[in-house]
Specification:
By secondary structure, this protein is an alpha/beta fold. The protein is globular. Helix content is 29%, strand content 11%. A hairpin with a 5-residue loop joins strand 4 and strand 5. The strands form two sheets. It has a six-stranded mixed sheet, sandwiched between helices. Strands 2-6 form a two-stranded antiparallel sheet. The two termini are 32 Å apart. It has two domains: 34 residues, no CATH class; 166 residues, Peptidoglycan recognition protein-like (Lysozyme-like, 3-Layer(aba) Sandwich). It holds the Pfam family Amidase_2.
Length: 226
Amino acid sequence: MATEKARQGGGDGGAGRWPGRRAVLVGGAAAAAGGAVLWRGELSRLWWRLPGDQRPRVAGAVDFAGARWVAASSANYRRADRPDDYAVDRVVVHVTQGSYTSAVKAFEDPGHQAAAHYIVRADGRVTQMIRELDVAFHAGNREYNERSVGIEHEGFVEKAASFTDAMYAASARLTARICARYAIPVDRAHIIGHVEVPGTDHTDPGPHWDWDRYLRLVLRERTART
């Protein structure tokens, strides 16, 4: 399950982050105008030019059709403007080591200091808790948090029965959409387990996660949509 031991990649509030491309454009335009005052109406029409972390968000909007929206605590992610400020080139597979309900409760808790973008239930239902625009604190490594989408799976690494047909199918559809959106190759170099993140002390998704099966399903979904 996503966690931020030693707060790696965690709640830095964006410290050290270079401004996104749109932020530079907007700032440069303002400077060139010599400090001229823009009318309120003009400002309202320029909201879409702001960096994504300042752009208005639609409450309950999801990035994966059919997902249920449940908001994670804002302490468990950082607002961003991906992929403009951070290129997204990884999907990280997690296992919750508990029930779906316990995972949602943890990600809603500001003291948990971690959350993934998605949770896939044993019955195949998908919940999104953080927008893909934003940096979720899920991998225990700041660079990997910034460049990846994290997907939790309900269950336990030591129980093969946790990983149902419905879960594999739903997760593969989700990962295929993410790969299509960011042009991520469907391979084991770009779709990885939490255990493979540098510096992590986690073992998920564990020995019972069928990577060959999963990659076949993701590739089939990806190919069907091209």
